[in-house]
Design a protein that fits this description.
- The structure holds 2 protein chains of 2 kinds.
- Chain A is mostly helical.
- In chain A, α11 packs antiparallel against α12.
- The two termini of chain A are 51 Å apart.
- By secondary structure, chain B is mostly helical.
- Chain B contains 12 helices and 6 strands.
- The N and C termini of chain B lie far apart (39 Å).
- Classes of the chains: A mainly alpha, B mainly alpha.
- Chain A: InterPro entries: Cation/H_exchanger_CPA1, Cation/H_exchanger_TM, Na/H_exchanger_3/5, NaH_exchanger.
């Protein structure tokens, strides 16, 4: 079966792919399809004959008769192809991820490149030419930014900043080292005659070295996440590869300028200018990113009213920071990196929790999507004939040098860093760091954007870059995991989130700063502390809303998170145990369940939390035997362990549960809102309306009962009994009263408002049947729960097993709270139907 | 190195001290200088108000407790030996030190570090962290940001997490267990070879990884 499924998927992929190929083949001459917008528009001019008959429909030519439908391929051609290609690439990922046995051996990025090979082969077979390729403009403007933004936004902030020094050393010095040594070594070998006759000078070699030094974050992270290496190693490699991209681009631009300048014109002044430009571009870009981070953070302070697009602001502003840096010829990658890293904390605090989740997911979707496309297109690029200028010496030496010099650089810099590092980076970690120097799309993008006029051997360089990318991503990617296991690299430790841990951490931080003070040295903690102080006092004031400031304390955050988790777990547990647990023990269980909901509520809503503070006391999986300050034993996952509870608490729990149920019922109502996805933002208001209506209804009912109604009821009574007895309903006096009332209610209600039927499907089948005394209705099954039926629509469907509980005497508690009346069924029924009409 | 030796000679029992604490002569001298600087009146011992004079320490929310940790119960002063011994808690755990079966546990062992941390909570020295003690620490650290009710809930939950025997207090054993497998920052007092500075650094993530190996 699994195979069949995979096969079907593969088939679907092929079909879609062939569609995109076919559509592309319609215009033979277009060299660059797929993502190439700019060329696309010009390519549309070349309409092949096969589409002539169809495209004639929308041409400017006079039409003889009114066409019913028109084939308008060229109207949609570009976006259509782009969409098809995106779909194809994503399906590739789907296919690649189908078998976990394969993905555990070959990293996903490698698999995607291989899929790209296959697709490229098909294109080749069909076209005998490369019809699709990734052009640098699209790569740098439309595919790369979201990857970098996602990576920087999801960067573990604290870890990143505490290792920033090491990361910068590796990213800046390491990259320069790689670029310089690879370039010079290749040049030396060339001069030595190892690669035959090529038209490359030293500067071109250096330029090539610069573009080859880009360690790809995507490929590296994909591999490292798979193997779960320890945090320090992870952040070093991740941070390095991310910043390294920016540095590489800067370095590339500097060398590119040198190449344009030409050898003879370069003197000491130009070189110094180059070095200055390197630093200005890098730090300027980073600074710009920080400025944008501040802007974003300040903006999210005031976006409360447009929550729907809140997440969009971050993406747009992040992208703008990229483009602005590009415009100012600063480092765009560094800009967006620092933008993401710096704003992360503040926007998470400022934005609504939903927006944060949205942002995270949207970024992930975009980043993963473009990542997939990049790798597939990298594979696809292999079919380009032009780039395959084979030079064995050049290619092999390049691979050799990038590996050797990477290792040398990493070992040397780590040795340097270890002199001052408290916990040295050990040798295996260093080795993995060196081995993790995978080259990826950035190198390819830079190589592709080389100018053929300035660099005659562009195609050789491009081809070599592609081979290096394939070599590192596929070969090193595959061997990375076994290597990490073989070297016994320290893996990341899974640790639970606990209050103790958080609190102890905090205490120790204070202790350490105090010890530094006592010893009279400004150590790391001094800086940390002073930064924290500064941040608390000024930065947070500037960038955070006052609400967020209040709740930003990590200890409180952990507490909140743990509570939410427990509540969720508890509800899930209750559901998965199913009705069994509840039926067996329903008195306690129901109350317990409700209380848990109340607890969840108390956590979500601070204002309730205040007056319900005794509730969030004992939320824990561990049953607490001791009774502390409140008489309630804590909520326990084990429903059997519950003791009797005090009536008052029960009532408030019921009350809260009712609130909750009303809320979810409202959510079930099919509504659409352009700007909000939950319509009942304020259940309190609804509750208020509900209670008020209920009370007024109750009053009217009472008066009716006292005055007019009894007569009516008496007259109805016999009729009711006679009709319901065949249905097997017990006609006890307690029952008949609600029935009569329900009938009364319905004759009034259902006649006046037909939409009840729409909102109450359940009632539509059963209750009206009873109401109009229709004996044919299948009341048999539902008859015993008739009293519950009236209220069932409020329960979310997954709580249905609670329904029978309503039959128990305790169930009356829920509205004993709301109204003190004895006539519990009737007002509930009434107000319910009234409620829906609100 | 003449000056080094002369300074060292001024300190009584310096060899014993070095052996107990594991500090190098350079560290001892550096600490001695600092000790003298703190001891403004030159009495040869420090009083609580000497610590209080450190401006940054006054800002520390749990500064009082930390100062208190230097003074054994009933004592109003701390001499240089005790001072160094307290600071020795913060030296990194020696991994290379050969394990001699009959030698006393070094001050910078993991459990001694934990004991030091534990007594910061346990102010009444009954070997247990009670709810009130925890509440005090939390209140000091969280300050105005949370309400009293929330603070109490947090304290209760924290106790529940660690409390294994359900006596509503955290004993040292429980404290040690809570710190064992949790995200836990071990503190070290780390001195690089050849470096005269005392370096006290918080090793955030890396340290816990190391601790995994030390256990």
């Amino acid at each position: 079966m699994a195979f069949l499924q995979q096969f079907a998927l593969l088939l679907a992929l092929l079909i879609i792919f062939s569609t995109s190929c076919k559509t592309a083949m319609l215009e033979v001459d277009s060299a660059e399809v797929g993502l190439n917008y700019s060329l696309k528009s010009s390519a549309t001019e070349n309409i092949s004959t096969s589409t002539n008959d169809s495209t004639g429909g929308h041409g400017s030519s006079t039409i003889t008769t009114l066409p019913i439908v028109i084939w308008k391929w060229h109207h949609v051609e570009t976006p259509y192809l782009v969409a098809l290609w995106i779909l194809t690439c994503w399906l590739c990922k789907l296919v690649a991820e189908l078998n976990h046995n394969i993905t555990s051996v070959i990293p996903e990025s490698g698999l995607l490149i291989m899929m790209g090979f296959i697709l490229g082969g098909i294109v080749w077979g069909a076209d005998k030419a490369q019809t699709f390729k990734l052009i640098p403009v699209n790569f740098f403007y439309y595919l790369l930014p979201q990857i970098v933004l996602d990576a920087s936004y999801c960067m573990p902030n604290k870890l990143f900043f505490s290792n920033l020094g090491a990361i910068l050393v590796h990213a800046v010095i390491g990259t320069c080292w790689n670029a310089g040594t690879v370039g010079i070594a290749l040049w030396g070998c060339y001069e030595g005659g190892a690669m035959g006759n090529l038209n490359i000078g030293l500067l071109q070699f250096l330029l090539f070295g610069a573009l080859m030094s880009a360690v790809d974050p995507v490929a590296v992270i994909a591999v490292f996440e798979e193997v779960h290496v320890n945090e320090v190693l992870y952040i070093l490699v991740f941070g390095e590869s991310l910043l390294n991209d920016g540095v590489t681009v800067v370095l590339y631009n500097v060398f590119d300028a040198f190449v344009s300048l030409g050898g003879p014109k370069i003197n000491a002044a130009e070189i110094i200018k180059g070095i200055i430009s390197f630093f200005v571009v890098s730090f300027g870009g980073s600074f710009l990113g920080v400025v944008f981070a501040v802007l974003i953070s300040m903006l999210t302070r005031v976006t409360k009213n447009v929550q729907v697009i809140e997440a969009g602001f971050i993406i747009v502003l992040g992208y703008l920071s990229y483009l602005t840096a590009e415009m100012l010829s600063l480092s765009a990658i560094l800009s967006i990196t620092f933008c993401g890293v710096c704003c992360q904390k503040y926007i998470t605090a400022n934005m609504d929790e939903k927006s944060v989740t949205t942002l995270r997911y949207v970024l992930k979707v975009m980043a993963n999507g473009s990542e997939t496309m990049i790798f597939v297109f990298l594979g696809l690029s292999a079919i380009d004939q032009n780039i395959w200028v084979w030079n064995t010496g050049f290619i092999l030496l390049t691979i050799l040098f990038i590996v050797i010099f990477r290792f040398m650089g990493v070992f040397f810099l780590n040795w340097l860093l270890n002199q001052s590092r408290l916990i040295p980076i050990d040798l295996t970690d260093q080795f993995v760091m060196g081995y993790g120097g995978l080259r990826g799309a950035v190198a390819y993008g830079l190589a592709a954007s080389l100018d053929e006029k300035k660099i005659p051997e562009k195609n050789l360089m491009l081809g070599t870059t592609l081979i290096v990318v394939y070599f590192t991503v596929i070969l090193q990617g595959i061997t990375m995991k076994p290597l990490v296991q073989w070297l016994k690299v320290k893996k990341a430790t899974q640790s639970d989130l606990t209050l103790n841990g958080k609190m102890n951490n905090r205490v120790f931080e204070h202790v350490l700063t105090a010890m530094e003070d006592i010893c009279g040295r400004m150590g790391d903690n001094w800086w940390t502390r002073h930064w924290n102080y500064f941040e608390d006092k000024y930065v947070c004031w500037l960038l955070m809303t006052s609400d967020a400031r209040k709740h930003k304390d990590p200890i409180f955050g952990v507490f909140h998170k743990l509570n939410l988790e427990d509540a969720k777990k508890y509800v899930n547990e209750g559901e998965s145990k199913g009705s069994l647990a509840f039926i067996r023990n329903y008195d306690n269980a129901s109350v317990d369940f409700k209380k848990q909901l109340a607890l969840e509520y108390a956590d979500i809503m601070p204002d309730i939390m205040n007056d319900m503070s005794e509730y969030d006391f004992g939320i824990d999986n561990v049953p607490v035997t001791s009774v502390m300050k409140n008489p309630l034993p804590s909520v326990s996952l084990n429903v059997h362990e519950l003791d009797r509870k005090s009536m008052l608490n029960d009532l408030s729990a019921h009350h809260l549960l009712d609130q909750h149920l009303y809320k979810s019922r409202r959510d079930n109502r099919p509504t659409y809102s352009r700007s909000h996805y939950n319509t009942s933002e304020n259940p309190d208001e609804m509750q208020e309306i509900f209670q008020r209506t209920m009370r007024s209804r109750l009053e009217s009912f009472k008066s009716a009962k006292m005055g007019v109604n009894p007569a009516k009821k008496l007259s109805k009574h016999p009729k009711k009994d006679s009709t319901h007895k065949p249905n097997g309903k017990p006609a006890d006096p307690h029952r008949t009263h609600p029935y009569g009332d329900e009938d009364f209610e319905f004759s009034a209600d259902s006649a006046s408002s037909s939409e009840i039927a729409g909102h109450f499907p359940r009632r539509n089948t059963n209750a009206p049947g009873a109401g109009v005394d229709n004996p044919t209705a299948n009341n048999m099954a539902v008859a015993p729960s008739q009293t519950a039926q009236g209220r069932l629509p409020w329960t979310p469907t997954n709580l249905r097993h609670l329904a029978p509980l309503r039959m128990s005497t305790r169930s009356t508690d829920s509205f004993a709270m709301a109204d003190a009346s004895v006539d519990d069924e009737a007002p509930e029924e009434k107000s319910g139907s009234h409620h829906t009409r609100l | 190195m003449g000056s080094t030796n002369s300074t060292l000679l001024k300190i009584p029992n310096v060899e014993v001290l070095m052996q107990e604490t594991g500090f190098s002569p350079a560290h001892i001298i550096r600490l001695h200088d600092r000790f003298k600087a703190l001891d403004k009146e030159g009495r040869g011992h420090l009083c609580p108000h000497d610590f209080g004079a450190i401006k940054e320490l006054a800002m520390n929310p749990i500064g009082d407790r930390i100062i208190g940790a230097f003074f054994s119960p009933g004592k109003e002063t701390v001499d240089f030996h005790t001072f160094v011994k307290i600071l020795a808690h913060f030296r990194p755990v020696d991994k290379d030190r050969p394990k001699e079966p009959n030698s006393p546990e070094p001050i910078n062992s993991r459990s001694n570090k934990l004991k030091f941390a534990f007594q910061l909570y346990d102010q009444d020295k009954d070997g247990k962290i009670s709810r009130d003690e925890l509440l005090q620490v939390l209140r000091a650290m969280l300050g105005m940001q949370v309400t009293d009710e929330q603070l109490e809930s947090i304290a209760d939950r924290t106790i529940q997490e660690a409390d294994l025997d359900r006596d509503d207090t955290i004993s040292f054993e429980e404290f040690r267990k809570a710190c064992k497998h949790k995200r836990f920052t071990m503190f070290r007092f780390c001195i690089r070879p050849g470096e005269r500075k005392l370096m006290l650094t918080l090793c955030h993530w890396s340290s816990e990884l190391q601790d995994q190996h030390e256990l």
